[in-house]
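Predict both folds.
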Amino acid sequence: LENAGTTGLTAIAGDTFAKKVSTRAETKAGEAVGKVRIRFTVVGDTDAAFIGGDKVAAVTTNASGVAVAPALVAGEQTGGFTVRATVIGRTVPGLDYKATVTERVADALASTGETELTCTPGGEFADPVQVKATLKGAVADQVAVTATLIKSKDDPTENDKGPYFKDADGKAVRTLTGRKTDANGLLELPKLFADDAEGTYVLRLTTPGGGRLDITLKVAKAAEPTPDPSTEPSTAPEA
């Protein structure tokens, strides 16, 4: 068995591989062998499979000795795996093809809300942060988003004061990972809280593929209510 020109077996999670595995059966003299059954098997720790969901496919070589496997479909699990070609019924060494599944990507993030995100010291933000991820203008679903409260737009270091999220134990955290967009490319972050430090802060969201969005958060004391003139005591002299 010889590789019949298959290279670059790479696909994004959930996508169909653009290239198919192609194998050529030939004699020791290099002559093509037609009508030979080739078994293609997906090997390794992966949820990738041939179209239809099967991990094994059998294909008969054509007159040129070539057998082309069905299209490969990437699963959600990223990393490498192998497609192994063997000759059915003959003791011929198999041929391995390396394939890789890469993570889903988005090249743009946009906020879906128009409300200014403000909070009083020690309080909680009333409105959640919700964003939409896209890739070349199309919805980007199941894309991992990292959210970090940073010191400033010019200093992406995680902040040590200001707004924060809470982890499962209720402790303050300022970086969230592992959150993914839904089928519509949307992601709503957990509730944000504020400590006692007033000021303007930056929440930065990023995705694989270059998507980035900075959201401004403000922590300030509530404005003093303006007195209603109609309720003020009269200073006019009594008649």
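Second protein follows, with its predicted structure tokens after the sequence.
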Amino acid sequence: MAISLARGFLERQVPIAPDTLTRVLFAVRKRKTVANWIQKWLPQLDRRVWILASGRGLSQVGIGFVLFYAPIFFVNQVGLSATQVGLGVGCEALAGMFGRFLGGSMTDSPQWGRRKTLLLSALISALADAVFLVSYTFPIFVLGNLLMGFGVGLYWPSTEAVVADITPSADRNEAFALVRLADSLGLGLGVMLGGALITTTQQYRPLFAIDGLTFLLFFALIYYAIAETRPTQSHDRNFWQGWTVALKDPLLLTYVTVNILFTGYISQVQSTLPLYLNRFVPSGSTLGLSEATLSLLFTSHVILTALCQLPVVKALKPLSQPRALMVSACLWGTGFSLVWATGVGIFGQASLGAVLALSTLAIAITAYTPVASSFVVMLAPETLRGVYLSVNSMCWAIGYFVGPPLGGWALDQSRFISDGFWLVAAMSIILVLGILSYLDWQLRVKHH
């Protein structure tokens, strides 16, 4: 626009003050500089990756609306007990395991493929929100959780397989980083908007309607904008045959151990660490950081994780996936050591130690999540990406099943064990580094 304005002035031979022309040219140069910077910062990926990322971000906005507020609603307003809500969430996890198992085979099946599995996932998740919307009793609440867990279980293998299918191997780390960034931004926006809606209206049930609507919008986006991406096969496998191949893959089974540890680390940050900082770290004459301080710390942690996602992956791009994961493991060890140092009072200000620890752990997460998915895709035969990514997704379920109870147990023990838990977590990276070194060596031998 600025260029057109300047050209128009020149064609009409309208006298322009020197300072006006200087400002116009400066604006043009500045706009070009910003555009070049954005183009350089953002990865150059297939248009469909951006479409899928926008859809994932949209669905995560809906999930953010209900993620933290659903338990409060069903206990405080519906009248279910905390135990009943916990059982319902447990049912969701079990249904999610089954959904992941079935979803991996469906994703690789010629009868279903990536697209149909994604569409079914969106419909089942929207149906789950409809059940929650009319839920007043425990059995209906459990039904909603079973449907939601199954829908989400179908979602992960299929959506990750689409990213892998449409992205060259050299760009997969960045592609997975982009969709993870969309997930984080959508979830954070949903949590904020959900809180604002509750504060304004004091109504919880509309949250489920909004969540269901986002799943239907995601369905429409996939239906109209994403064609089937499943590679063609020379012969069709038995529906369950892919699992036989995956569970006999020594590299995949070796990596599963590492992946469960990584997901267990993330679960500690989300479940155990907030409680530890609230109850154990020295803060002046008392123990524990306030809820307001913790809210600020963890909000900043989420924001930093989102901001670092693409730059960190771009920096790790020259490394092989196992070596990039070694960098993540070292950051996890450093972060957990900083948590221990904060708890035993090495830092004069506990909040300073918490900031350093959470910042380090944020970068550790960004170095892990996209690289892990890319690594599993690299291990997988092209026709079995769905099953292999289903195994990757199940590692998350196992890590979150084991991690929080283990961390909770440690915090219920003596102060020595509660503090030492973080040192043990930090030292566990020795096992992770050893396994990743073995995997890196095996891959180099295989390629040569």
